[in-house]
Structure prediction request, 193 residues.
Amino acid sequence: MTLQALKYGVALAGIGLSGTASAHSGGEAGYSLLSGLAHPLTGVDHLLAMLAVGLWAGLIGGRARIAFPAAFLGMMLVAGAWGMSGAALAGVEIGIAVSVLVLGLAIALRANPPILAGAAACAIFAIFHGHAHGAELPEAAGGLSYALGFVMATGALHVIGLQAARLLTARSPLAARLAGGGVALAGLALLAG
Prediction:
């Protein structure tokens, strides 16, 4: 799957689901989908980590461009269901902050691990993000529509990160490293705060 195909798939899914969701009586599905779409976008910690996954994958290139986001999305969905079930996970906020710090450092240092190791790191970080999304399922929301929303938003953020990597490496590789440093500093601030 090419990056272009992934972008079009995310866009088409969003368009197709938005029309379907608003057609339900009571608006529950539409509300659920919109709540899920909004969740990754409303917290700087989620936003930075998800953009960073795409940016890191894009800087490495090759199979990482699909493997890292796919590992993150898959594990996030599993952990989201876990969070929706009401099961507790200790240290979620710390795990999220650490993910921002480590992903930022990986970008800043141009870390280039084997594909499986990088994908595993992304999957581990996704446990914390997914659990947080699932645990914060709004009371009136349907779990499936909500999960679809946060997966779509996360996928879109990964694509933006991939595109940013392409633009930055073409124009200024140092800018990508500086962006990673900024993400790492934000992770430190999240840990301190």
